[in-house]
Write a structure and sequence with these properties.
Length: about 280
């Protein structure tokens, strides 16, 4: 009987491994202001198995990716994490990509609320063991503040070229080349990029006093900051400040690397994936 039960157990495990397969799912999630388009990428797991989940947050004017012909930074990270047995969810913030809303209507506080809604969604998935966050540029700011709000509920955080400069930009009255008087804003938006885009007045007002580092400092868990010295959009000193105030930070300053890590994207994504894998497994 003992031998038969061993065979039965082996057969059950074999069937489970055969039935398990990697899965990519497109879905919508209720955000703070509208529906958010999202992609979940899940490794091959058995029915009762749990895996770590990473919430990925794109930057100002960006999107979640998902183009197999021209893989983005997030596509690469999601594929590499899947290979390590780690699930990911990437989504378009309100006013971006395939999500609802107009770009000029978005603000960083709205993005924080969107990210918290996504966290609530994945936290309740039966196959999720832990939740971590990763963000690039403005998404790095959002990820840092979400981690600060959630504290120990976040396993680890990765900030790639975090754009904490956005508060200083608002105070100076200069965002991505658009000039304005932050103390005398007229209308709902100002024009950017020669009229090809609009920046909301509420975005500027909320960015002006956004407690970026103050909120991020509440996260005491494992933190990884990746920034390039050639970043002309967000000087790398903003990344250094994140690591200086964190008791458990790893700082990677990449010589000559730009804001999108275009010099060596594989290296930057490998650093992020290695850090997350080391922390969650």
């Amino acid at each position: 009987m003992k031998v038969l039960s061993v065979f039965a157990l082996s057969a059950t495990m074999l069937l489970a491994s055969i039935s398990a397969k990697a899965e990519t799912q497109t879905l919508t999630i209720d955000g703070s202001k509208g529906k958010l388009a999202a992609i979940i990428q899940k490794p091959a797991i058995a029915a009762t198995q749990k895996v770590p989940m990473v919430i990925m947050m794109h930057g100002f004017g960006g999107n979640k990716g998902g183009n197999a012909q021209r893989p983005s930074m997030f596509d690469k990270i999601a594929d590499k994490l899947e290979a390590q047995g780690i699930a990911t969810i990437r989504f378009d913030f309100f006013g971006h990509g395939e999500s609802e809303g107009e770009f000029w209507q978005h603000t960083v506080p709205i993005e924080i609320e969107d990210a918290l809604k996504v966290y609530e969604y994945v936290r309740d998935l039966r196959y999720v063991s832990t939740v971590s966050v990763l963000g690039h540029s403005q998404g790095g700011v959002v990820a840092s503040m979400v981690a600060g709000k959630l504290g120990a509920e976040v396993k680890c955080a990765v900030l790639m070229a975090p754009a904490a400069v956005l508060r200083d930009d608002a105070i100076r009255g200069s965002t991505m080349g658009a000039q304005y008087d932050p103390l005398n804003l007229e209308g709902e938006y100002i024009e950017m990029f020669g009229g090809r885009a609009k920046l909301g007045a509420e975005y500027i007002r909320t960015a002006f006093s956004l407690p970026i580092y103050e909120t991020a400092a509440n996260f005491k868990g494992a933190l990884c900051v990746i920034h390039g010295t050639g970043d002309r959009t967000v000087p790398y000193t903003y990344g250094i400040r994140y690591s200086d105030q964190s008791p458990n930070a790893e700082l990677y300053i990449l010589p000559g690397e730009d804001h999108g890590f275009n010099k060596d994207l594989e290296r930057a994504t490998d650093i992020a994936v290695e850090f997350i894998t080391r922390q969650v497994k």
